[in-house]
Structure formats: structure tokens, C-alpha cells
From TrEMBL:
Gene3D superfamilies: 3.30.1360.40, Cyclophilin-like (2.40.100.10). Keywords: ATP-binding, Hydrolase, Nucleotide-binding. Residues 20-220 form the Carboxyltransferase domain. This is 5-oxoprolinase subunit PxpB. PANTHER family: 5-OXOPROLINASE SUBUNIT B. GO terms for molecular function: 5-oxoprolinase (ATP-hydrolyzing) activity; ATP binding.
Length: 255
């Protein structure tokens, strides 16, 4: 078995981007790291390699796990030729462009503030803004889903406006409700279920990113984009009933 090593630099549109590192993870997984920052091009290369590995389906492949900046490939060590797998990864990362196809774009309804977003006023005060200004800033951005993780369906979103970037809470909450729209540092997220969190709660959406009894179980995917649409409490209540009945509720505005 090869030890962890670096592949050759990746050439992208005439320039050289960070050298991928191919790292063994025990005897049944390998990780390809493309960089150390949150960057859409790096994430695009992660997703492009993920597409390639899944389409090639090497013998013994169990699962691929794309993240912000790396791809982990899990495999059956009895059925997989590790050196052949690493050779495939080395070859495919040499001239790997970011995934060109833009993911789907979703419009996600949110009721902000009050009992639905208990940290909205505090976030506004921290940044010298009014709650309505925070809502306008938050709902004006286009967010990229960099990865799904932590919990089933939890969306790690990039694209938060720096004007409302807010450090995590000093004292995490043991439980926040499913559908909570939250921010932490320069990231944003949607709670797929009741969960603990140290992020700041701005609002609530009826959308369920993860619903075991629904088809599809997972609504969003890495590479998709999200825009948030402010709605009032009565509209949220109607959409919440629809979501509980199994409807996706989120509107796919770009397939």
C-alpha cells in the first residue's frame, strides 16, 4: 500500500491550483485534499472528482463523501486494488476542472425574527443594524451548498454577507427546531431536524432538507444553490402543514 503523498499540481485554465494530497484513511478509505480554504473552485474540483469516481465505480466502492475541500472514498479492502485506485485518482486529478454544471437553485421560504428567529435582534445589535436590515442582507445573497454533513441533510452554506458574519454563541443550545435558519462565523445552515447548535437563529423554514418518508429523502445536494424568501407567519403555517404532509415546499427555480 502506498503511503500518503502529493499528486502533481493540477492545471486549471492555464494556471496551477493547490496540489492535491492523496491520503490513506486506515485500510478502507482514501482522502483527496484539494486545498485548505472555502473556495467555490476547490469545491467544484471536489464535486467533479466525486462525479468521476461514482461513474467509474471501481471494484469494492462503498461510498464517496465530498466536503468543502476534499473527497473521501470508502471501499472494501478485500475487493479493491488500492494501488489501482490511487493510480486512477492521480490520473484524474492532473487536468481536473471544477464541475462546470451549476447545481439546482432553490427558493426557500423563511419567517424571520420573533419566536421563529430568537437571535435576530441580537445579531442586528452586534453589527449596528436593524432587524429588517439583517433580513434584507441575509435574503439577498445566493448561497452555495458546499457539503452535506454533521447530521443527515444538514446544509453547510457559503455566501453569507460579511456584514452579518457572527461568531458562534459562547453557550450552545441543547436543542433547536427542525427548519431553523442559522448563521455561525461566515457560514449559514438549515437544521434538518431538531438538533443542538451554537449558531445564531435568524428564522424558521417549513422546508425539511431530510425527510425519511419522502421521495426524495434528501432534498438538496452539494453544488446546489439556495436563495431565502421572507414570508409572514400565516404563510409559514400553511407551508408547514404542506411540509408535514410530505411536500418539498422549497421551489426549484433552476433545474
Amino acid at each position: 500500500m502506498r503511503c500518503g503523498h502529493e499528486a502533481l499540481p493540477v492545471r486549471q485554465q492555464g494556471c496551477i491550483v493547490p496540489t492535491p494530497k492523496i491520503l490513506p484513511c486506515g485500510d478502507s478509505a482514501v482522502t483527496v485534499e484539494f486545498g485548505s480554504t472555502i473556495d467555490p473552485d476547490i469545491n467544484g474540483m471536489v464535486l467533479a472528482l466525486d462525479d468521476i469516481v461514482r461513474s467509474r465505480a471501481p471494484a469494492g466502492l462503498i461510498e464517496t463523501v465530498p466536503t468543502y475541500r476534499s473527497l473521501t472514498i470508502q471501499f472494501d479492502p478485500v475487493a479493491t486494488d488500492y494501488d489501482a485506485l490511487v493510480g486512477l485518482l492521480e490520473a484524474e486529478t492532473q487536468n481536473l476542472p471544477p464541475r462546470n454544471a451549476v447545481g439546482r437553485r432553490w427558493r426557500v421560504p423563511v419567517v424571520y425574527g420573533g419566536e421563529f428567529g430568537i437571535d435576530l435582534e441580537e445579531v442586528a445589535s452586534l453589527h449596528g443594524l436593524t432587524p429588517n436590515q439583517v433580513i434584507d442582507i441575509h435574503s439577498s445573497a445566493v448561497y452555495r451548498i458546499y457539503m452535506i454533513g454533521f447530521l443527515p441533510g444538514f446544509t453547510y452554506l457559503g455566501g453569507l454577507d460579511k456584514r452579518i458574519a457572527t461568531s458562534r454563541r459562547l453557550h450552545p443550545r441543547a436543542k433547536i427546531p427542525a427548519g431553523t435558519i442559522m448563521i455561525g462565523g461566515e457560514q449559514a445552515g438549515i437544521a434538518p431536524m431538531d438538533m443542538p447548535s451554537g449558531w445564531h437563529n435568524l428564522g424558521l423554514t417549513p422546508v425539511r432538507p431530510y425527510a425519511p418518508g419522502r421521495d426524495p429523502v434528501f432534498l438538496f445536494a452539494a453544488g446546489d444553490e439556495i436563495v431565502f424568501e421572507p414570508v409572514d407567519a400565516s404563510r409559514w403555517e400553511a407551508l408547514e402543514k404542506a411540509a408535514l404532509a410530505g411536500e418539498p415546499v422549497a421551489e426549484e427555480v433552476r433545474p
